[in-house]
Amino acid sequence: MRATEPRRGRRLPFSVxxxxxxxxxxxxxxxxxxxxxAVLERAVGSATVTEGNVEVxxxxxxxxxxxxxxxxxxxxxxxxxxxxxxxxxxxxxEIGEILDPVLLERGRALKEEAEGERAAWQSGVDARLxxxxxxxxxxxGDIQGVIETLRSGLYRPAQGLQTRRLEEMLxxxxxxxxxxxxxxxxxxxxxxxGGAWKEKTREAEQLLRSASTPxxxxxxxxxxxxxxxxxxxFDPLQSRAALTLSEPKxxxxxxxxxxGEKVAAGQILAKVVQDEPTFCKVLLKGASVAAPxxxxxxxxxxxxxxxxxxxxxxxxxxREADTTxxxxxxxxPPALAQERTAQVEVTVRRLRGLLVPEKAxxxxxxxIGVYVRRSSRWQFEPVEILLARDGQVLVKGLKAGEEIAVGxxx
Length: 410
Hints:
Helices cover about 30% and strands about 35% of the residues. The strands form five sheets. The chain has a six-stranded antiparallel β-barrel. The chain has a four-stranded antiparallel β-sheet with strand order 6-5-3-10. Strands 16-17-18 form a three-stranded antiparallel β-sheet, with no helix packed on it. Mean pLDDT is about 85; it is low at about 1-10 and about 40-45. It is elongated and about 180 Å long. About 20% of the residues are buried. It is of the alpha+beta class. A hairpin with a 4-residue loop joins strand 12 (about 295-300) and strand 13. It contains four helices and 21 strands.
């Protein structure tokens, strides 16, 4: 008998095998795509449409200008300071004085002489008054003793001689007491009136007053003892002229004049920086945002001083690449009183609306929009861009609270 040969399995045609391989690859690719998309969604994430503000800010360098009264020496002499730098004063306050050394020495010498005479005179008056007071106390005591003796009844009417003697003694003591009281009153009046030294003291005081010429503040403000030359370059009544100011026009006082130093008449000593109005000339170079209009209200921030001030645009000058604005500050912070230049940030507009991250924007054909998740699906929604600042975009066409894709395209 022939041995039975094992049956061989039938192979699939090559075309079928190829189809199955391709089908497997497609399935693997689809699985990888779905898995990758799920990972991407989790990795890149999304954001929520929020409502908020976007500020339109211009940055530049500012020149601070205001009315600043320059104080000069009204006469030659020794300069004596009576205020501190930065101290706020009212109009008419004495900033310092100029002393005439000759009159000052004469007045001091005469006052010292008068003080010596007054001391000697006062010593004499006090000694005389003390003697009178001591005798008055003694006489008053004697009077009281005589009166008590007369009342004691030791002397009967029969003893008339001794009684009369006591009465005569009493009368003399009373008369002496009256004299002493009159002398006490006269000495007190003399002490109040003063002696010849008093006239000499008045003369010394007059000399000392004549030796001093006060330097007073013509306007209220803050006192400073250095000048940079801009003090007389600006007139608030002609504020538009500030746009053409390019350099200081006045004298410069780099260091304060020391107290006690001799000065000449007309020499610059100090200045008073008036509180208001203060103007801010801002130079904007290559600004990407249009400048405000004259009359617009803006807000000026001085980052180095932590100060924000409301202001009004009073003048504008636009050139090819630069714009100069003149702003009138609505109040003058004390921290800026001594400053001449500062870096500023001018907020010209503040808009409120819906905010989305700038990375959420995508372009589909000719339209710009975002992908919004709706009913567990991502749907493209076109938006209108109002303003983009600092990575945030102010848009129209969405609703607050909607979830949007950020950094990727579904």
